[in-house]
Structure formats: structure tokens, C-alpha cells
Design a protein that fits this description.
224 residues; alpha/beta; Glycerol-3-phosphate (1)-acyltransferase; seven-stranded mixed β-sheet; 7 helices; globular
Length: 224
């Protein structure tokens, strides 16, 4: 029975991803770069900036690997939407507190060689800029031996800023950067890793902004 459930889940996941690709690519003209930086096997953490509700799709659709998402627990309060989330490899986490159960689940999934997508800013951006990302997730990498891949999303904020009720059409760019291995993270230390990660993510986003033909953000005075 467990094997049958697994097969059914895989079929549903592939079906849902195929349908979403047919919808999202023409509506948002998704352009992705750097997919080769995402290992084809083994534990991977995709750590992305957060521009709009569609970010999980923008991270997932250009890749062929199955992915787990970390979603705030309050999203499961909506009966139908919560039921849908539970079928799509999501891990609920309580925001604003140390959710030990969620952390253990993330580490467990990574140890199985899976991909987990995280948005450590915790909430959608107010103006398109990337909030200061702390290195708390470095613990997950050390415990699971997962590679950490920075993912920059650009253009999604203009499609659906958090102060707007409904999205609009537009062009979205996604870039998967060079990964940090657990050994590199250990050598950098938490503070050094946080600094290197933020600098790399800011640079990636500004490269995408130039590609869009808009002015890069100035992160030179951003607090570390």
C-alpha cells in the first residue's frame, strides 16, 4: 500500500508540474539561467529571495528534480488550499518561533537526498529588494550535508507586489548561482557565510535587473 501511495503521489506531482509549466511559462515568460549549478543527485537547499506568492513555482519549474517547500503553518488553515499544499511536498513551519519539529523534518528530507526550497526572509519583499538573510539555515546544511544554492528571482515583484490583491502578466527571471558546499560553509563560519551568501545573491539579482533593463539596487550600505 505504501508503494502504491508513493507511485500515485509521483504521478500527481508530475501532472501538477506539467500543468503549471503550461500555465506559467507563457503568462510570465520565465527565463532561467544556471540550472547546471543545481546537482542532479543528492541533498540540495535552494535558498531564494521572496518577491511574490508564485516564487515556489518560479524556483521549481525550470528544474527537473522534485522539490520540497517550507510553508508557514497558517496557510494550512484554509481547508481546500491546505489540502492541496499537503499533496505537493510541503513542510509546515510556525513563523516567529523555533519550530524544532519542522527543522527535524527538513533535515530528514535532505538526508534522503531530496531538494528543499527555503525563503529565509520570512515574508515577501516590500519594494523588490532582498532583505538581510541570516545564516541560520547553515545548520541545516551542516546536519544534512546539503549543498546550498542561492536563487535570485527578479521581475516577480512587479507581477504581484504584496500590496496588490491580484497578479498581472509580466516577465520573470530566475538565476541559480554557484553552490556552497557544507565544507565551505564550515570554513567560512556562520557570519562569514551569511556575508558571502548575501553578497552573491545581491550580485545575482542586479545582474538580472540589468538584463531587464532596469537600474540595479544599491546594497552597499546594507547592514550585515
Amino acid at each position: 500500500m505504501k508503494y502504491i501511495k508513493k507511485i500515485v503521489h509521483l504521478i500527481w506531482y508530475e501532472f501538477a508540474r506539467s500543468v503549471l509549466r503550461l500555465i506559467f511559462y507563457p503568462l510570465f515568460l520565465i527565463t532561467a539561467r544556471g540550472q547546471k549549478n543545481v546537482p542532479r543527485k543528492g541533498p540540495v537547499m535552494l535558498v531564494s529571495n521572496h518577491q511574490c506568492y508564485f516564487d515556489p513555482m518560479f524556483c521549481q519549474l525550470p528544474l527537473n528534480r522534485h522539490m520540497y517547500y517550507v510553508a508557514r503553518s497558517t496557510l494550512y488553515n484554509h481547508k481546500l488550499f491546505g489540502m492541496l499544499l499537503s499533496t505537493l511536498n510541503t513542510i509546515p513551519i510556525r513563523r516567529g518561533e523555533a519550530d524544532v519539529g519542522a527543522i527535524k523534518k527538513i533535515i530528514s528530507v535532505l538526508k534522503e537526498g531530496k531538494v528543499v526550497c527555503l525563503y529565509p526572509e520570512g515574508e515577501r519583499t516590500l519594494d523588490g529588494r532582498i532583505g538581510n538573510i541570516k545564516a541560520g539555515f547553515s545548520l541545516l546544511s551542516r546536519r544534512s550535508k546539503a549543498v546550498v544554492i542561492p536563487v535570485a528571482i527578479e521581475g516577480a515583484f512587479e507581477c504581484w507586489p504584496r500590496h496588490k490583491k491580484y497578479p498581472k502578466l509580466g516577465r520573470v527571471y530566475v538565476k541559480y548561482g554557484e553552490g556552497f558546499t557544507p565544507q565551505q560553509i564550515k570554513e567560512l563560519g556562520d557570519e562569514g557565510f551569511a556575508r558571502e551568501f548575501n553578497e552573491r545573491l545581491h550580485k545575482m539579482q542586479n545582474e538580472l535587473r540589468l538584463k531587464r533593463g532596469v537600474e540595479p539596487f544599491d546594497y552597499s550600505n546594507k547592514d550585515e
